[in-house]
Design brief:
41% of the residues lie in helices and 21% in strands. α4 runs parallel beside α7.
């Protein structure tokens, strides 16, 4: 059997290869380097262990605070929510309480998530403690020192994906309705404010004008309304005589707007401030206007400009008291 030694040799090589593969698969992974810092020492010892030793955006950082104190001392661990810079606190718990060498030891385990920041740091802690064998609730404090962690650069720039483009979310029907309502209210408020401002400005302007100036302004505004062209002849004559009556009230102190034409003419006929010539023209003007206002009389086209000119002539030629021209 010449081939038997050859078979044995091949079998031995196969077994060696299998053992080598097993040895490689069973090899222990590389241990993660840790960092240990002494934060406080003396009657109370506080030690910090960080795993890994540096801060990296690719994995969390685990901290273990080991507190060692005599049995007669009670240590109250402070809150950690605002004690870290460059980290988000992902969890904290007390894992073990034990006695070693006559001292009580406790482990506080913390999980931190690093974020992009200029500095990674543990701020100083104010750790309260009290003596249990002494009377009274007196509390003392021990201050730990700050610890700064080095930051690892990103493992690969290619592993960082560009941010996704913003997703456009169309507004709902309710949101559109609310927006339209706000726009309508804003426009309406602006228009109302504009009207109020215009009225205030007009009121101030009219107060600074004399009765004659106000009457001439009101006549110009009446013509700008184009009541005659719109067929509102009766309204035009009502407004025209009202301008003249308001002028008489402002310049002579006679309440002409509240009186009938007959009452006003009777009162003006005995008032020396109304010359006969002016009073005659005023009587003709007012009586003709009453025909249009109350008797549905329709004057000819030439009567309307004449009535307007009569009103202007009376206002401009009326010998009103000069002392009232500024009122």
């Amino acid at each position: 059997m010449r081939t038997r030694p050859l078979h044995l040799a091949l079998l031995a090589l196969a077994l060696l290869g299998a053992w080598g593969c097993r040895g490689k698969s069973a090899a222990a992974p590389e241990s993660v380097p840790s960092r240990t810092e002494e934060l406080a020492s003396g009657r109370i010892d506080i030690t910090l262990t960080a795993t890994p030793a540096t801060a990296s955006l690719e994995h969390p950082l685990f901290l273990t605070f080991t507190i060692s104190a005599p049995p007669s001392v009670t240590v109250d661990w402070p809150p950690l929510e605002d004690r870290f810079e460059g980290f988000d606190l992902a969890g904290a718990y007390e894992s073990q309480v034990r006695t070693e060498n006559g001292r009580i030891k406790r482990d506080i385990r913390v999980r931190l998530i690093p974020r992009a920041a200029p500095e990674y740091r543990l701020k100083p802690l104010a750790v309260p403690y009290r003596e249990t064998n002494e009377p009274g609730p007196a509390t003392s404090w021990i201050k730990t020192r700050a610890v700064t962690f080095k930051a690892d650069p990103l493992a690969s720039v290619k592993s960082v994906r560009p941010p996704a483009p913003p997703l456009a979310i169309p507004p709902s029907a309710r949101e559109i309705g609310i927006i339209l309502l706000i726009v309508v209210l804003a426009v309406a408020g602006g228009v109302l404010l504009y009207i109020i401002i215009r009225r205030i400005q007009r009121t101030l302007k009219l107060r600074q004008m004399s009765p004659r100036q106000r009457a001439l302004l009101e006549l110009d505004e009446l013509m700008a309304r184009h009541l005659v062209e719109q067929g509102q002849l009766k309204d035009f004559y009502f407004e025209l005589t009202a301008v003249v009556r308001r002028y008489i009230e402002r310049s002579h102190g006679i309440r002409a707007p509240e009186q009938t034409t007959e009452e006003f003419l009777a009162l003006a006929g005995v008032d020396p401030r109304f010359p006969k010539e002016n009073l005659g023209k005023l009587k003709t003007f007012l009586m003709a206007a009453d025909w249009v206002k109350f008797a549905n009389y329709r004057p000819g086209p030439e009567a309307i400009p004449e009535a307007l000119q009569t009103a202007k002539d009376y206002v401009t030629t009326d010998p009103a008291d000069p002392g009232k021209e500024g009122g």
